[in-house]
Design brief:
CATH architecture of the largest domain: 3-Layer(aba) Sandwich
Number of domains: 2
Order of helices and strands: HHEHEHHHEEEEHEHHEHHEEEHHEEEEH
Largest sheet: 11 strands, mixed
Radius of gyration: 23 Å
Structural class: alpha/beta
Number of strands: 15
Shape: globular
Distance between the termini: 69 Å
CATH class of the largest domain: Alpha Beta
Length: 485
């Protein structure tokens, strides 16, 4: 073969390779809908990060110029910032279940905190990914079932991460102090323990069924990340799924001295609140740096959100922030449901992407299934309430046309909070005794200041009917329609 022919073949092959690679990157979401990549190196890793009780306004990328979150801000700038990302409920446990199942909490029966536990009949993200030989692990606050088999409580039951598709776990059943998580902090006089005494027995963390007592001092986010990093390192050559649910900044809110010094001009409560958020942000930065050190950041998608709006008490004191939105945790207003959120996937999600399309924690499962497995992986017989976000994140669509439902229920206390968003309209039933019905046009009234329930009766009727239909569907699921007996 002549040199000219060699050169022609070489150039032809090079063009084909480059074109193929460009198509793979630009059209990843569309390709995932039909046939996911088979080679381990082509199958992306997935990391789901979640904070606890962090309000929409408690992060720099949503405009807070006091709290220092440089790593989250960089993550949002390097990928997508969600301006209107909703938790499925205005409190922790129901939302956590929605992240793993893609379903509304009213479907699987976790209607509030410390009630029930995740049912094994639910199909979770890690259960789906294990079929593709993913290694799966959970780290942090579980709160959708007890993690100790002999744990005794009037409500709830034993349902640890290992029952729901996780190969490994390092988990607590519920909240711990954000500094020295095994010790009740000074000045704390509420639930959990007595000041200076062991927190909930002194060994709230369980690792693969065994109580953990070593490496438990200092920042709780660091305690968690010390277990995450080795998992990532051990699985750098194969696809993995890591769920990391921080306790920060849920009460008891405590920060180390070095973090409180960053906010020396603030009062003690703000020093602890802002300080523990910055400490968590530092650990998120540590994780992002490790992905780059290992050279796997381009085949790893990282999601971040909070589980609900800011704590009632801290929001009312002006310490925690819902960013101007009305309400806070335990309310059906957007202040209780909107959360800070972003995602990063270098080379796939364009840097600097921002969207105000209404997204939700129920969207994680269909999005991750589309990325890693293809849409056919989702059971047709199991109602999934979320949608695949990749067409939105890659610029194929500008908005999402679907309704969103939210709920929080403790009938023993007279609480039956519900809400639906359909288009730009939101109908809610307040989460308190004799909860009033409210109607808002979010396009004109994003802070829910002008109730239109009396002046727009036709719209009220349409949304009330939709809400009743969704709730009835959830009731059927909750009563067993989706499971085999």
């Amino acid at each position: 073969m002549t040199n000219a022919r060699y050169l022609y073949v070489y150039v032809l092959v090079l063009v084909l390779v480059l074109c193929g690679w460009g198509s793979l990157t630009a059209g990843h979401a569309a390709a995932a809908e039909t046939a996911p990549a088979e080679a381990a190196s082509d199958v992306p890793n997935v990391i789901m990060l979640m904070s606890d009780d962090q309000g929409w306004g408690d992060v720099g990328f949503n405009g807070n110029d006091v709290v220092q979150t440089p790593n989250l801000d960089d993550m949002a700038a390097s990928g997508v910032r969600f301006g209107r990302f909703y938790a499925a409920a205005p409190l922790c446990s129901p939302t956590r279940g929605s992240c793993l199942t893609g379903r509304y909490p009213f479907r699987y029966g976790i209607l509030a905190a410390h009630t029930a536990g995740m049912r094994v009949g639910e199909t979770t993200i890690p259960e789906m990914l294990k079929k593709k030989d993913y290694r799966t692990a959970f780290f942090g606050k579980w709160h959708i079932g007890w993690v100790k088999p002999d744990e005794v409580s009037p409500r709830g039951f034993y349902s640890p991460p290992s029952h729901h598709g996780f190969d490994e776990y390092f988990a607590t059943t519920s909240a711990v102090p954000t500094w020295n998580p095994t010790v009740t902090p000074a000045g704390w006089d509420s639930w959990g323990g007595d000041e200076g005494k062991p927190w909930k027995g002194g060994a709230p963390y369980v690792q693969n069924g065994v109580e953990v007592t070593e490496n438990m001092d200092g920042d709780d986010s660091r305690v968690i990340m010390d277990r995450v990093i080795p998992f990532v390192e051990a699985n750098k050559e194969q696809p993995f799924f890591a769920t990391v649910w921080f306790h920060t900044p849920h009460e008891p809110v405590v920060a180390g001295e070095e973090y409180k010094k960053l906010y020396a001009k603030s009062g003690s409560a703000r020093q602890n609140y802002y300080g523990c958020i910055t400490a968590m942000d530092e650990q998120i930065g540590r994780l992002r740096a490790k992905l780059r050190e290992l050279g796997i950041e381009k085949r790893t998608v990282v999601f971040f959100c909070s589980d609900n709006g800011p704590s009632d008490g801290l929001a009312k004191k002006g310490i925690a922030s819902a960013g101007g939105f009305h309400g806070h945790k335990h309310t059906m207003y957007d202040g209780g449901l909107l959360v800070p959120a972003c995602a990063e996937w270098p080379g796939v999600i364009p840097a600097g992407t921002a969207t105000d399309a209404r997204c939700s924690t129920v969207d994680y499962l269909p999005t991750i299934a589309g990325i890693c497995l293809g849409k056919s992986a989702i059971k047709k017989s199991l109602p999934i309430d979320g949608v695949d976000l990749m067409p939105l994140l890659t610029g194929q669509v500008d908005d999402l046309e679907r309704d969103l439902f939210f709920g929080y229920r403790r009938l023993v206390q007279g609480i039956d909070g519900k809400a639906i968003i359909s288009g730009d309209w939101k109908l809610l039933q307040e989460a308190k005794k004799d909860g009033k019905i409210r109607l808002y046009d979010l396009s004109k009234d994003p802070y829910e200041e002008n109730d239109l329930s009396a002046s727009a009766p036709e719209r009220l009727s349409v949304l009330s009917k939709k809400l009743a239909e969704i709730e009835a569907s959830c009731q059927r699921s909750r009563d067993g329609a989706d499971y085999r007996y």
